[in-house]
Design a protein that fits this description.
By secondary structure, the chain is an alpha/beta fold. The chain is built from seven helices and ten strands. It has helices at about 40-50, 75-80, 95-105, 110-125, 140-150, 170-185, 195-200, and strands at about 1-10, 15-25, 30-35, 55-60, 65, 80-85, 160, 190-195, 205-210, 215-219. Bound molecules: adenosine-5'-triphosphate.
């Protein structure tokens, strides 16, 4: 599904942040991405959803060499990938419901065609009764779940989550992990970037560890 070959990334003229990354991500797979602060987890996530171009090497996403992609092909490919950002990126002037529905609104879809899907998804993440409130009054954990719902609304084949349990207490972190596992069971490949060893220790999942610009994988 995703293939990196000898990928390197530097910002501007700085040192290489990521060097010689070679790995694959299989459909329906589940993995953690970890490493010290500043190791390059967010950078790798940005490469994975075509938000950054590698300085060298080859990245193939859903079988397409990203270097050969036309700009016009990007949005369709990106829609197959859901991203939960570390800082949520919810829009404060839209309700929780409207934030989650945003990807459909951007596509110009008729509200009647997605209203039930958004409501079901909000129930699924436990925000059924927070639909009509605005992000500034949501707690950190509620914002986190709204961001997860928004990433899932277009039924992505691959979900990337950057520190999705960074702002929640351990019971909620376990609950979010169960949501990701359930999503994975339903067929979505999942990659979770985290510092949280306790979270990773709950599962016998693949671990991708970035350190000193290099990637080690523990299957
Ligand atoms: N836009 C940018 N321009 C220049 N340097 C950057 C940029 N974004 C990140 N970096 C640098 O690249 C390195 C990797 O950063 P990145 O955010 O990918 O790490 P991380 O592993 O996600 O860190 P954390 O766990 O603290 O979120 C850091 O040295 C950072 O300062």
């Amino acid at each position: 599904m995703i293939r990196f070959e000898n990928v390197g990334l530097r910002y501007g003229t700085g040192r290489e942040v990521l060097s010689d990354l070679t790995f694959s991500i299989a459909p329906h797979s589940f993995q953690f991405l970890t490493g010290p602060s500043g190791a390059g987890k967010t950078t790798l996530i940005r490469l994975l959803f075509l938000n950054l171009k590698p300085t060298r090497g080859l990245i193939s996403i859903f079988g397409k060499d990203t270097a050969l992609l036309r700009r016009a092909d990007m949005p369709a490919l990106r829609r197959r990938i859901g991203v939960v950002f570390q800082d949520f990126r919810l829009l404060d002037h839209l309700t929780t419901y409207e934030n989650v529905a945003l990807p459909y609104r951007v596509l110009g879809k008729d509200e009647a065609s997605y209203r039930a899907d958004v409501a079901d998804l909000l129930d699924w993440v436990g925000l059924g009764d927070r639909k009509h409130v605005y992000p500034p009054v949501l707690s950190g954990g509620e914002k986190q779940r709204a961001a997860i719902a928004r990433a899932l609304i277009t039924k992505p084949e691959f979900l990337l989550a950057d520190e999705p349990t960074g702002n929640v207490d351990p019971p909620l972190a376990r609950r979010l992990l169960r949501l990701f596992l359930e999503l994975n069971r339903l067929g979505t490949a999942v990659l979770i970037a985290t510092h949280d060893i306790g979270l990773m220790d709950q599962l016998d999942a693949r671990r991708m560890v970035i350190e000193g610009g290099h990637l080690e994988i523990y299957e």
